[in-house]
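Appendix B: complex inputs.
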Amino acid sequence: MVELILCGRGGQGIVFLTKLIGEIATSKGLRVITSETHGMAVRGGSINSHVRIGPFYSPLVRPGQAGFLVSLESAETPNNAHYLTPDGILVENSPLPAEPRVFRCDAAGLARDLGRTQLENVVLLAFATMVGGFPISVEELRSRLAGDPREQVRTMNLRAMDAGVKAAKSSAAC
Amino acid sequence: MNKPTGADVRFLMGNEAIGRGIIESGCTLAAAYPGTPSSEVLESLVRWKRELNHPIYLEWSINEKVAFEIAYGASLSGARSVAIMKMVGLNVASDPFLSAAYLGVRGGLVVVVADDPGPHSSQTEQDSRFFGWFAKVPVLDPGTPAEAREMVMQAFELSEKYEVPVLLRPCLRVCHARQNVAITTPRAPADVGPFKKDWTRWAAIPRFRLVLHRQLNEKLAKMREEEPAARPVLICGDSRGATAVVTSGSVSSHVRDVVTANGALAGVDVYKVDLPFPAHAEALQQIADRYDRTLVVEETYPVLELQLRDRRKVLGRLSGTVPEQGELVPELVEDIILNVVGADRPARDAPTIKARRPSLCPGCPHRPAFYAIRKVFDRAIYSGDIGCYTLGINMGAVDTCLCMGSSVGMAGGLARGGSSERDTRVVATIGDSTFYHAGVPALINAVHTRTPMVLVIMDNNITAMTGGQPTPASDQLADGSPAVPIDMERLVRGTGVESLEVVDPYDHESMRGALEKARRHSFDEAGGVSVVIARRPCVRMRNVTMPSTRFQVDENCDLCMSCIRDLECPAFRYEKAEKKIEIDADICAGCGFCVQVCPSQAIKATGA
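Resulting structure:
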């Protein structure tokens, strides 16, 4: 049983990550329910997704209940930090150094190095899978991304994933 | 309960689960108009149709009224059919919707109406269950995506059994939730036989309407009495507590989870009603009579609460226990129930910053159109409309936004209500899909009445806000089969408009020229309506590729802030510490419009 919040700006690919996590959990036979933002807010506004793995009916996480906050935009973290449990873990897209219970990865920079800023979501999710207790493993993520029938998308996603994993391995915090 | 094991379990959005339920029910026709949070239902049907090679007919109709009428016609022809819309769409479709309740149906007719408590992406928080009650149409209210799929099938069965339309009312938290959902093989399309002529029913004059009204009331009474879904079902507790919660729909899932999770609520019994109209009022009353107190938690109107005759021990919206507006999120639901049982509410942290406001996308063709409108008409009333371009408010270029198509209709009054000439200059903006939806009759009216106004149709060739559905100008139907594209210029000319210009809003000089010509025509010379079609495809469309050119601000910048204030492009940022304007290359779309309009000519292509 674990609850997560993913947050960022509209257009950063949060719904894609929500689907990835939900599909992986589903293929593992876990019960999962999520909620996401659509409509006006996705035009660059603040958005978040809620992910609840366990025997839940409601798709919304209550404040103080999330084990993880995955933030694609550090400026959006204060909008969502209240969802974390007191010992919850923040995984943030940021070049700043790690802190206790805060894991940071410059996913935007790594994605830019790969030639596509839009890959920052996959970089950060791959980084998050390396953090202890995260509900999906890097192997599960890899097998999901490797199953994409579109060759170019598959190749780029796997490269983004490798970049995130490498960043986690070289970070003393993970 | 949906147990996520086995091969036939998919991780589906609520709207996709509804689409799946429609396909599995043997439905022959689905018609919809896009609107958040309902749009993905028909989009998912396009995918299910392709995946299953299913014969279902799918269309994005011009508006919700037409969508409903098409579905109703299919029902009279004997087929199962569905109309899909958001709740304000039901306002548009209300005329045929109420009449159809009297006439009844033949093939099962389900109307999927998505509600938006909050509201997150809508004009109102109206409760479509209440609308169902008003129209005397039964309403099923799903709590989760998996339940929504099952209720589609239930809705078709009820519709055929009682010969009435049935409304399925998912809230946003069902529509845009995703869950593992068990799916099955679709049944063959159902058919109750060809249309049978009977004018006393299908073309009933008032004398027969009275008969039909009595029949409708009898159907509802029978449904209320006999259908298990009309009765409250215990979903939490042992029915021996002192406090009962009666609930329905997506908020019932929040209630169930908080009562299960919070030890202080262990003695609370929760009852859920799947068919909140017509609910079994006596069974509800028995709960209210038996418990010390009964709390009704429902969104957004007191539908179940009002069906309780004796409310002396009932708490809800009518007693002030539940707020009368706003979404009932789980933490609020938890606080309300804790308060009712007399337990302490937990301290909760709140967001420490304000949410970021949405903006027109970088490269969006609406931005240069609004920019030019502001330059040419600096003191006009800007009559706006519903779509992405409502975000023209950020640029000071949208003053009003009422409902679909209202920019044109309201202009007729705005232009005549002002006392000075300056006040009466009205510039209306409307998107292409909204223009087709409800703008065309208003334009005919404006032309006919010689309304002095400029109408800018912001034609991005798509219904953008809701995710990119085709408009009547498309040469393809929803599933890619051929359509007759409607020619916007011919349509506008056909209404009698004399001054019509078609321009690319990226070309600032041409856009200004077209607006100045329209201004002279409508306000200085002939008077009446002028139309400018600002045409450029939405940057989010798949076939649109943007230039890779990026830009930088050079030393000619005098920090006039026009790029941030007037252009409102998200790629521009003022760096306070360095006192300079930066262009974020990751956000910039490469449109280069800023180069044309920077007052100091300080923006140059990178490396140029």
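Strands of chain A lie at 2-9, 32-35, 46-53, 66-71, 84-93, 102-105.
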